[in-house]
Amino acid sequence: MIDNTLPLLVKGYGWLPDLRRRSDDGPLWTRLAGRSALALHGTDAVRWFYDERHVVRQDALPGPLLDTLFGRGAVHTLDGESHRTRKAMFLTELKDPEAVHELTGLAATEWDRAAARWAARGRAVLFDEAAEVITRAVCAWAGVALPEGPDGARQTAADLVAMVDGFATAGPRHFRARRARHRQEARIADLVTTERERARAAEPGQEGPGSASTALAAVAAHRDADGTRLDPRTAAVEVLNVVRPTVAVSWFVAFAAHALHRWPRQREFLVRGGAEEAVAFAHEVRRFYPFAPFVAGLAAEGARWQDREIPAGTMVLLDLYGLNHDEKLWPDPYAFDPDRFLGRPPERDTLVPQGGGDPAAGHRCPGEDVTVALLATLAPRLARLSYDVPAQDLTIPLHRIPTRPRSGVVLANVRSPHSERPLGAAATR
Questions:
Q1: Alpha carbon distance 12, 32 (integer Å)
Q2: Which one of 32, 151, 257, 278 is CB 3.0 to 4.6 Å from 409, fit for a cystine?
Q3: What is the pLDDT of residues 189-217, one digit of tens each?
Q4: CATH for 18
Q5: Could you list the residue range(s) of the whole structural domain that residue 256 is in?
Q6: DSSP 244-294
Q7: What is the value of pTM for the model shown?
């Protein structure tokens, strides 16, 4: 088999769907980084992939990915009871409707404050501004103090964005991501230590998950399946695994702005609609625009796919981008159409921009509800905001992982959300 590492780097999101089209939609054997890999597609493959009897995560994630995106010792590297015990901590914080409502309320407040600043300046790069808005909100919600000084939030947002932006490259973005992770892990490890000292002083002998009121406190108090606490650095990794993916919603905010500019009628869909329309729009942004191209694991001992045995340790890839654009599942998949989700919530293993399976039992992202709620909160606010889109490069390069509009979506002549002046449609390329 020909090694496909270079074609992956060249084609990005299009690599696996392109290979699949040439293999009659069945399982596809290939090679990546010198090792054999099995690429799968389809809802049955999603269910199979997220069953630990078939695919495991321990030792599956390469070092460069851990040193940028997830962190060493992260929940993503665990399996079995160790994974379930660690992940329960995230589910408590990220699946509670009241907690999600609190976070979206903070994000809405921060957005409104930021929009006033944009109006005063008259100009904003939406991707950067959304990252700072969400950073301020999620850090306040998670109990993670921002560095002192006027640039504390912006610098923290830049580090959190860098961790996501640099995981799939060997160039300067990757080294920025490593440096950003090192800074934030060290800073948050100190916050974990301080939180544990505070908990001991407040309730000697009583600190534990039941008394935690923030994500930072929950992680600081957490005990793994063997009864031990996380060391401060690993605890910092897991705090970042709450904060970092939340800030990654800024990618979707930029994509939402791209959709509103490219299809102006979607603005009216959000402005005149209610909560159901906002959620449908959020789902369609997540389906239509590229985020994760695929996820990977290693075949477990005795794993079989379609009655064929897979050697233990084989790399297994699950096609996410291709599944979200599969015409068998999504009529007219390259049309942006939030109506497809009105009255029809997405099935669990069909819409998989952040993975599939059961978040309580498997490796599906536990923050998916937070992503949808934040996007459904911020997209209508963006739709109500009056601004022009000056000439800029709004192309979305599919070879770049993760990708986003090249310009970050520049907004000019920003006005109050209550302004009646219509959106300008200045030329873009």
A1: 13
A2: 257
A3: 999 999 999 998 886 555 443 345 899 99
A4: 1.10.630.10
A5: 5-415
A6: HHHHTHHHHHHHHHHHHHHSTHHHHHHHH--HHHHHHHHHHHHHHS-S--E
A7: 0.92
